[in-house]
């Protein structure tokens, strides 16, 4: 089992200066390694049997990889001795980040989903220092011993479990200061194996929306807070202040810091709202069913600002993690016709988006449109479980029929 704890760091002035210097050096190295990747890719991406018309044929060179760029760090420290002050594993993590960003752009992740083209990081854009290995007893009371930094104070607002080992430590620079993230692991704790059968009694369906944040199949509504929209006037003034400052001046940096703090406040408000809503939902059912939303597709419409303000993607991912930790289950269902079909008789009742009440002419059911959709989501989750069980039973019967019967030999006693 592995999870992370985050604490507020309290470094002194010398440690802050050292962190800032490390981050700037790592940023320069990240851009240099990424530039190597782009240079090779631009000159070698032409097919072997064709000649580019815009340039001559380049001399063949070895492709920069994770291992070759990692080996180049030794020469880097000889050519630029100031990189010797950075811990070796921190530099190696910089190479790993470049390789990960480049591979996700060209090949995609495990599911084949590709990311955008990686960009060079401007000044102040490199914000994390990762220590892949730390000592087992590096934390003493409210202090942590980090390589080449020594003892750094932090606010220990919650204790670290004794049975868990600290695997990695990461320093992150945010708008309001520095934070320490500890990755904890205990190999003795087995991974959770959830075996829950969804039924109408233990399953709760939720319908995500913009009029209300969500409506449950029991009729309970959670209002949408719209933290970003409420802070738009403040955001507008801060953005105007940044644009009026001379770029690079101290007043410009101060205005940028104020703008970053505002965005951080909105993000924290949304995060707190999500966790409070998750706690409310998990107390009502062992199985939580929701729609499998295409958020990127929906965000291309005129409702994009409202959708991103609600934070559906973050909410559903946090819901899945919290449900797994609590021994509960989340199920994604196909959203097709969940708001059109009747949850009572199952027949389709077409309605416009402006119609907020579901009135079924077939069975006479009348209820809120979103609650009807939440009930359809719950019914689909229960039906998926029944169909999967029937399919497994059919496959088991087919396998038993194809399996040859054992031959029983009769042995007589002569």
From TrEMBL:
Task: Describe the location of the Transposase putative helix-turn-helix domain by residue ranges.
Answer: 1-44
- Gene Ontology process terms (BP): DNA recombination; transposition
User: Which positions fall inside the Probable transposase IS891/IS1136/IS1341 domain?
Assistant: 196-300
Q: Where is the Cas12f1-like TNB domain?
A: 312-377
Question: Which InterPro entries does the record match to this protein?
Answer: Cas12f1-like_TNB, Transposase, Transposase_put_HTH
Q: Which residues form a coiled coil?
A: none
This entry's Gene Ontology molecular function terms read: DNA binding; metal ion binding
Q: Which UniProt keywords apply?
A: DNA recombination, DNA-binding, Metal-binding, Transposition, Zinc
Cite a single Pfam family from the UniProt record: Cas12f1-like_TNB
Q: Write down the superkingdom of origin.
A: Bacteria
Q: Which family does it belong to?
A: In the C-terminal section; belongs to the transposase 35 family.
Q: Spell out the NCBIfam families in the cross-references.
A: guided_TnpB
Q: What is this protein called?
A: IS200/IS605 family element transposase accessory protein TnpB
Q: Which organism does this record belong to?
A: Euhalothece natronophila Z-M001
The root-end lineage is: Bacteria, Bacillati, Cyanobacteriota, Cyanophyceae, Oscillatoriophycideae
């Amino acid at each position: 089992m592995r999870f992370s704890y985050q604490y507020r760091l309290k470094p002194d002035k010398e440690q802050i200066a050292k962190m800032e210097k490390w981050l700037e050096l790592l940023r320069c190295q990240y851009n240099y390694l990424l530039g190597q990747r782009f240079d090779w890719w631009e000159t070698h991406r032409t097919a072997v049997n064709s000649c580019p018309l815009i340039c001559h044929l380049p001399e063949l060179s070895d492709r920069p990889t994770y291992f070759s760029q990692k080996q180049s760090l030794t020469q880097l420290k000889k050519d630029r001795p100031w990189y010797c002050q950075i811990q070796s594993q921190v530099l190696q993590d910089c190479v790993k980040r470049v390789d990960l960003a480049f591979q996700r752009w060209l090949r995609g992740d495990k599911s084949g989903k590709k990311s955008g083209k990686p960009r060079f990081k401007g000044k102040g854009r490199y914000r994390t220092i990762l220590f892949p290995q730390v000592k087992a007893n590096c934390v003493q009371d409210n202090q942590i011993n980090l390589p080449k930094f020594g003892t750094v104070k932090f606010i220990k607002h919650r204790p670290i479990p004794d049975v868990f080992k600290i695997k990695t430590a990461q320093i992150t620079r945010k708008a309001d200061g520095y934070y320490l993230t500890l990755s904890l692991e205990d190999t003795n704790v087995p991974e959770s194996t959830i075996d829950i059968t969804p039924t109408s009694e233990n399953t709760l369906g939720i319908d995500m929306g913009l009029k209300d944040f969500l409506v449950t199949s029991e009729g309970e509504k959670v209002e949408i807070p719209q933290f970003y929209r409420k802070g738009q006037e403040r955001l507008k003034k801060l953005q105007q202040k940044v644009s009026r400052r001379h770029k690079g001046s101290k007043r410009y940096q101060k205005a940028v810091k104020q703008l970053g703090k505002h965005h951080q406040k909105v993000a924290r408000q949304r995060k707190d709202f999500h966790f409070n809503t998750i706690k409310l939902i998990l107390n009502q059912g062992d199985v939580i069913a929701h729609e499998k939303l295409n958020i990127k597709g929906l965000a291309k419409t005129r409702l994009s600002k409202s959708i991103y303000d609600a934070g559906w993607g973050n909410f559903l991912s946090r819901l899945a993690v919290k449900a797994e930790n609590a021994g509960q289950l989340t199920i994604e269902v196909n959203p097709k016709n969940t708001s059109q079909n009747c949850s009572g008789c199952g027949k389709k009742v077409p309605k416009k988006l402006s119609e907020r009440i579901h009135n079924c002419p077939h069975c006479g059911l009348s209820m809120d449109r979103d609650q009807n959709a939440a009930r359809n989501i719950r019914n689909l989750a229960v039906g998926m479980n029944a169909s999967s069980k029937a399919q497994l039973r059919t496959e088991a019967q087919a396998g038993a029929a194809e399996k040859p019967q054992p031959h029983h030999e009769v042995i007589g006693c002569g």
